[in-house]
Amino acid sequence: MPPRRPAAQCVRYMAAFWFIILLVSFFSGFAAATTGETTSTSNPKPTYITSLPGLDGALPSLLETGYVRPSMPMTMDDCRYVTVDEENGAELFYYFVESEGDPGRDPVLLWLTGGHRCSVLSGLVFEIGPVELVRQPYDGISLPRLRWNPNSWTKVASILFVDSPVGAGFSFSRDPNGYDVGDVSASLQLIEFLYKWFSAHEDYLANPFYLGGGSYAAKLVPFITQKISEGIEAGVRPIINLKGYTVGNPLTGDTIDFDSRVPYCHGVGVISDQLYKLFDEISAPHILHNKCIAVSPGPSDVSRRKILNEEVDLLQNPPPRPPIECIEYPHYLLYFWVNNNATRETLGIKKGTVNEWVRCHQGDLPYDEDIVNGIEYHRKVASLNYRTLVYSGDHDAVLPFLSTQAWVRSLSDHIVDDWRAWHLDGQSAGFTMTYGNNVTFATVKGGGHTAPEYQPERCFAMFSRWISNRPL
């Protein structure tokens, strides 16, 4: 293992990172001014989509997909930079869903999905996007059907869904070394992604910008927010109109994440005073749901290197089929919908890159969990007075709300709106508390580990009020 760099040297490397960002933004602007182009010539043109295979009718708003190529020295491991090759390196795939309201003024939200290199389609299709899968028995032949999601967060915001890190979803690297990333390097690639994306979408620069993510991705969100804030202070262009972030059922990396598992499960009657073996008899993501099989296995050793350049005639890694009543059943359907040729062509997927889409990669690609504790970044962002919404499904036993509530409370001792119920249709939808540093904590009644998947109506009400600067 290489020796750790001293703190002062880390600071110098971060200063170098922002200096390179400044140079790139300057020369990108110079090139655009001399050629009349507003988009980066190093990235492929986006695909504009008005309807999707399996969906009756048009989408409620424009869907744009595309790739952005991180081309700078981006990966940092103990403050050592490794070049990501521009010609043969990584490309991050994104889905941009325009707001159904007023896209010229509504906020723009970057959304990241948690899990083990899970595709952001999980967030788009199962949680907060404009479409969802119809729960019908799959016959192995026809294309699974889609329908509109009446509780899509795109009703009040434009959402930029990004497959990150490299290797998740349709993001890929032509050089195998491009898959060797971690928390910090993936975050820095996302920062460069944002600067490139906004340079090509200048109409959205004035819109309020927020970041969001759930579960493991929530560990990266405050780090990225802090770094973007530092870029704003450094004068990096384009200037992003950063307003804050939201995280759901968030992992921090601190031991506090799991400290309340036993007290929580005991408190809701899942385990007795004598029994401390938690997860044998329950569905940890939602304690009231049936315990079902996982639907996100990673590629096998035989097929995982077929991510690039080899044509695969038959799908190699179909997930196990859960009972149709399980919440995981749409996860099973998504695999067949995405890997359909008509779907891939519509989405604009490059041939010879990711020949078989899987929802999550379970440890088959390298990843360094080098953000040890995300709470320090939450605290730093809170001190800058950016708006923050932390929410938890109150039936999640993976990351119980009691643990999240504890570390949120540690961010400030100044309460401006004390613990109270928040309501939907005259009924309690959860509980909330707001602190003087613009931090709001909320529980979602009946929500599981991915709260919008279990309680879409309540989560939409919560998000739409918060993003509109209204009290819950």
Number of helices: 12
Total beta strand runs: 18
Give the helix proportion (percent range).
25-40%
| Topology-level CATH name | Rossmann fold
Quickly name the level 1 CATH class. Alpha Beta
Give the count of structural domains. 1
Mean pLDDT: 84
CATH architecture: 3-Layer(aba) Sandwich
Describe this entry's structure for a reader.
This protein is α/β, with parallel strands linked by helices and 472 residues long. It has a single domain, classed as Alpha/Beta hydrolase fold, catalytic domain (Rossmann fold). The chain has 12 helices and 18 strands. Strands 1, 2, 5, 6, 9, 10, 12, 13, 15, 16, 17 and 18 form a 12-stranded mixed β-sheet that branches. The protein has a two-stranded antiparallel ribbon with strand order 3-4. The protein has a two-stranded antiparallel ribbon with strand order 7-8. α3 crosses α4. The protein is globular, with a radius of gyration of 22 Å. The N terminus is likely disordered.
